[in-house]
Fold this protein.
Amino acid sequence: MQEEFQAKIFTIKPGFDWRLNSSRLFFGGFIFLILFLIFAQTFEFDLQTVQSISFFLFVLIMVGSRWGYNEKQKKFGKIEGELRINDNSISIHGIGYELKEISNLAFNLLQVLDEQLWSESHPISRYYGGPAFSQGVDNYINFNFRNQQLKVYFQLETPSHKAELSNILKRHFFLGHIELQPTYDGLHLDYEQIQELKKRKLEWTKEKSS
């Protein structure tokens, strides 16, 4: 039975996202604090006013920092529709695109839902405002089909969900639907992993031809 990957599509909303988040609270509080201190010095505000407002803005900065440490990503858009990928086609919102008619297939696999965004080697980044955990919707696949270019973002829900797609895309590389560079770029492979992938394709090709 043919394997098929399925994922929820994420559609980015146009316009500007006005929602408050930890990063805006952190940097907004910091900017207002700097501006206030400049105004306070220029217009000679009394000491008690300076201390009170400075303390309030400092609290906002600390709240933004702490919020970012636990904040979950909420991208400006909505999850709707479904992406399906198998050995023969890619389906977006129920519309199928045959692999034999697709060109320049590329993709990017990043974090899954609730995966930590900041590297453990740079934990201080979290204190500058979040989010700290991914919504899992920064992943995308794009390709040319006849006279149109298509790009779709989708959600990866678990590490096994990501591994499932990774295996299918590697098979598309073996089948010749994806070039080597888009494959290792999209999978974020290091040098040893690239060599292993090339070796596996050679073995797979030999098995198919025998």
In short: Strands lie at 5-12, 77-85, 89-92, 95-98, 102-108, 139-145, 148-154. The CA atoms of residues 18 and 95 lie 33 Å apart. The chain has a mean pLDDT of 91.
